[in-house]
Design the sequence.
């Protein structure tokens, strides 16, 4: 029998091809990683014996090639004992006696096995190699062939000495995971999560109470010293830089995202006011009143700073443009805005070129209202000007002069203390009046009246040349000054009480209509909507004016004692009437008395709902139809 061996590569000759003859069994197996070099030599010797039967022309060549292969297998280093070489497919062409040419392939040389996914499920460290005929062992970090016997090749590798030695070494090695990444909360350990929570809590508390971030530099060493047995305190590391990053990069985006989501689906009120022009940029903080479903109440939140700059930074066009950008970039629709609360400046509430006029073009149902607290404050100030025009007394000038006279002078306060002891009264600190503080005038006047006699004695007994002292001496030497102060003490609570009501944190729009009517009616206890309150015939005579019981008693006492004249009494009564008339005039002009929204909002109050009709609810349905579900 003649056989012709065709090889693709001389170094990868398959020994099985020499046994592909009828009647001859194939060799047991090639040398594997778990076999010894001696077994490989035995296979080679048997191969030579069979090759002796081949023709003489090919005997020497075959012997030389076999000898070369044997040498290569014997000299293979131990590092590659797990490696297997993929046998090349070789075809042995045989000629039988009949003269026909036959070809044969033996075993895996005929069919190549491929990688199966089920092997990874059984052995997780076995995965697909570079091709389907190879698999990757992550323990040995080596790629081996599975083309010969498939799963048997994998099992043979797993049972090999090299693989078992590496597997045992991995099992005996302690993992370092507990020392750096035991995952519990967001990739952090439980202790790290507690420490991070403490840092965020402290940072938010500092913002809530307006504490400077520089204080955070002292928290880390302070907590470590105070709580030495606490792992959280010992791991606390949050100075001013980290605190600033927590607020600006973590907390603020989180709450802003929540606010934007609420504004997209719920009605809200916008509130804005401009800062003083002290820098190159003008700040126009934009805040929001919106319903919070978590707390079941309306909450006040910050949305955007809306900074403006340049020569037109304070114009209505630029400010409105910034407000519109703040809503558009967050995809917040104008149709959800039900109200705009701004200051009473013309740039905000003007009829034509203002922020209000531009917003009404976007959504005509928005209710525009100025600051009612500011209106009440200005009403009292306007009434005081009417009083000043008649009698020449200004309570603000007096309180400012008294406050600054004793401010920063221990010597003057010591003399005043002696006069307080002389009159049998307790010394009280003189309060400073600030004209922009709505409720400070009443408190300052009350404090002066509590020490009126010691103050009068102090200024009458002193001899100073300063202009302020001369003004104070003239005021406290005039007996009508006490009457003026008592009149203001009796009248200003009407304004302060209404102002405090408007400053409530709870919603009080349903009370506004009745409270405005009550405020207008209080000065003279009469309804003034449809009567001519400036006509003297519609006014009470001076002796029947409600100026306060103490004021009336003091006025009569001074008149009976001859300290004041009837002309002074008459002028005071005229000044009181001017005060009341001017207050009513300004309040009726500025307060939203005829606003239908305030009138119909009374049905929101459970106590007033019985007096309301269905038309009150239908008013809001017609005005804000887009808010209906």
Sequence:
């Amino acid at each position: 029998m003649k056989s012709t061996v065709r090889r693709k590569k001389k170094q990868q000759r398959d020994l099985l091809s020499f046994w592909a003859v009828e009647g001859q069994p194939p060799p047991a197996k090639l040398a594997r990683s778990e076999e010894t070099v001696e077994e490989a030599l035995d296979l080679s010797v048997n191969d030579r014996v069979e090759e002796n039967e081949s023709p003489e022309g090919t005997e020497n060549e075959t012997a030389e090639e076999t000898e070369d292969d044997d040498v290569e297998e014997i000299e293979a280093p131990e590092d590659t004992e797990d490696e297997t070489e993929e046998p090349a497919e070789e075809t042995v062409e045989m000629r039988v006696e009949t003269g026909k040419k036959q070809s044969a392939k033996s075993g895996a040389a005929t069919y190549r096995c491929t990688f199966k996914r089920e092997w990874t499920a059984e052995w997780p460290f076995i995965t697909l190699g570079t091709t389907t005929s190879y698999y990757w062992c992550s323990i040995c970090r080596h790629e081996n062939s599975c083309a010969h016997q498939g799963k048997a090749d994998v099992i043979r590798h797993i049972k090999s000495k090299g693989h078992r030695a590496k597997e045992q070494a991995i099992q005996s090695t302690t993992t370092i995971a507990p020392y750096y990444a035991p995952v519990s909360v967001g990739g952090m350990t439980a202790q790290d999560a507690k420490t991070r929570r403490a840092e965020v809590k402290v940072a938010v508390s500092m913002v809530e109470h307006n504490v400077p971030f520089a204080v955070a530099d002292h928290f880390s060493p302070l907590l470590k010293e105070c709580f030495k047995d606490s792992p959280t305190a010992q791991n606390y590391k949050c100075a001013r830089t980290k605190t600033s990053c927590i607020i600006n990069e973590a907390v603020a985006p989180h709450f802003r995202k929540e606010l934007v989501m609420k504004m997209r689906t719920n009605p809200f009120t916008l509130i804005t006011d401009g800062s003083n022009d002290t820098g190159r940029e003008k700040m126009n903080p934009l805040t929001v009143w919106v319903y919070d479903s978590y707390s079941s109440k309306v909450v006040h939140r910050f949305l955007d700073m809306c900074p403006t700059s340049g020569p037109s930074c304070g114009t209505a066009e630029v400010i409105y443009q910034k407000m519109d950008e703040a809503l558009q970039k967050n995809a917040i629709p104008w149709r959800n805005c039900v109200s705009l609360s701004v200051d009473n400046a013309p740039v905000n509430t003007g009829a034509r070129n203002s922020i209000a006029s531009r917003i009404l073009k976007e959504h005509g149902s928005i209710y525009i209202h100025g600051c009612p607290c500011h209106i009440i404050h200005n009403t009292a100030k306007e009434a005081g000007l009417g009083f000043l025009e008649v009698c020449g007394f200004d309570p603000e000038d007096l309180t400012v002069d008294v406050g600054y006279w004793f401010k920063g002078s221990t010597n003057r306060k010591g003399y005043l203390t002696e006069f307080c002891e002389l009159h049998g009264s307790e010394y009280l600190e003189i309060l400073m009046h600030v004209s922009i503080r709505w409720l400070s005038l009443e408190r300052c006047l009350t404090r002066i009246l509590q020490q009126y006699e010691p103050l009068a004695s102090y200024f009458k007994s002193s001899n100073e040349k300063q202009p302020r002292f001369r003004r104070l001496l003239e005021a406290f030497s005039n007996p009508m000054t006490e009457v003026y102060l008592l009149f203001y003490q009796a009248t200003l609570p009407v304004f302060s009480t209404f102002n405090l009501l408007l400053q409530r944190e709870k919603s009080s729009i349903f009370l506004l209509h009745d409270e405005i009517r009550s405020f207008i009616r209080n000065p003279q206890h009469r309804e003034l909507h449809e009567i001519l309150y400036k006509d003297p015939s519609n006014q009470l005579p001076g002796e029947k004016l409600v100026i306060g019981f103490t004021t009336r008693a003091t006025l009569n006492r001074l008149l009976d004692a001859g300290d004041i004249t009837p002309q002074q009494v008459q002028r005071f009564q005229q000044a009181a009437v001017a005060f009341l008339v001017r207050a009513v005039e300004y309040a009726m002009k500025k307060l939203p008395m005829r606003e239908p929204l305030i009138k119909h909002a009374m049905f929101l109050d459970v106590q007033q709902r019985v007096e309301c009709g269905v038309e009150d609810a239908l008013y809001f349905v017609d005005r804000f139809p887009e808010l209906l579900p």
Remarks:
- The first helix runs from residue 37 to 51.
- The mean pLDDT is 80.
- The two ends are 96 Å apart (CA to CA).
